[in-house]
């Protein structure tokens, strides 16, 4: 969890302190949960996509890295969401995407 603590020091996840806040958004699907977050230094907002590296007995790390590679390859395209940063812990990876 070292990396997520680092993520917490750089980015403020809206809703962790006050879940009734109108800025709290958490969308969850089969493979990921997405929350809105704010960079502490600049105030810019991002979508933090939390992906579990293991789902039941299946290792998803390769698929997550493939998603990161596709997002990096599509960076020049204005119609694809830009990837800002990637964080990794023992259990999950967090992709910071533009809103």
Word description of this protein:
This protein is an alpha+beta fold and 99 residues long. The protein has a single domain (2-98), classed as Phosphorylase Kinase, domain 1 (2-Layer Sandwich). 22% of the residues lie in helices and 39% in strands. The protein has helices at residues 2-10, 61-73; strands at 11-13, 26-28, 32-39, 45-52, 54-55, 58-59, 83-88, 92-98. Strands 1, 2, 3, 4, 7 and 8 form a six-stranded antiparallel β-sheet that branches. A hairpin with a 3-residue loop joins β7 (83-88) and β8. The protein is globular, with a radius of gyration of 14 Å. Belongs to the protein kinase superfamily. CAMK Ser/Thr protein kinase family. DAP kinase subfamily. It catalyses: L-seryl-[protein] + ATP = O-phospho-L-seryl-[protein] + ADP + H(+); L-threonyl-[protein] + ATP = O-phospho-L-threonyl-[protein] + ADP + H(+). One of its GO terms (molecular function) is ATP binding.
């Amino acid at each position: 969890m070292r990396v997520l603590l680092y993520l917490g020091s750089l980015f403020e996840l809206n809703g962790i302190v006050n879940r009734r806040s109108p800025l709290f958004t958490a969308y969850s699907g089969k493979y990921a949960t997405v929350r809105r977050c704010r960079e502490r230094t600049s105030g810019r907002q991002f979508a933090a996509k939390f992906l579990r590296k293991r789902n039941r007995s299946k290792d998803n790390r390769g698929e997550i890295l493939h998603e990161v590679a596709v997002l990096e390859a599509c960076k020049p395209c204005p119609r694809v969401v830009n990837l800002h940063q990637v964080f990794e812990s023992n259990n999950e990876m967090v992709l910071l995407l533009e809103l």
